Write the structure tokens for this entry.
Amino acid sequence: MGSGGSKTKEKESPHILKVHHEHTGGINCMAMNADGTMLATGSEDSTARTWSTYSDECLNVFAGHENYITCVEFVDDYVVTGSADATIRKWDTSSGECILVFKGHKSVVNNIVCTEDYVISTSYDKTAKWWQFITGECLHTFTGHLRSVLPIIYIYGEKKGSQDEDE
């Protein structure tokens, strides 16, 4: 998936400020946590890592996927990764431990969108799935797509019955 191109052009480009060589494969995806203190990367080497944005230090290595990482998201104190091994994993950012494995897709997980309550995933298996974030239970599988489901977007809205609605 990734090309690993930045590793070969590090010395050629004046625009590259820093290159980390800890991943042994190309980086496919990145995400930043809400307060901007951590960056997560997902790689061809089947690992995800978190990095301090202050010190550039690698904080955790999340190893457990059996194939390359396709997508990564932060939710509070967790990192959520999707992989070509058809699973989604929820990792604790403090301990680096895998807390939960979401199983149900039959092919590559292409993308994930996370909220505090749900994970929504898309896959090459022509489905999208809606998962409960805490338990990993699949709440619904969206079928009927003719091809792989690639992008997904979640539009946050106000909850019905909020104070703003009452005013």
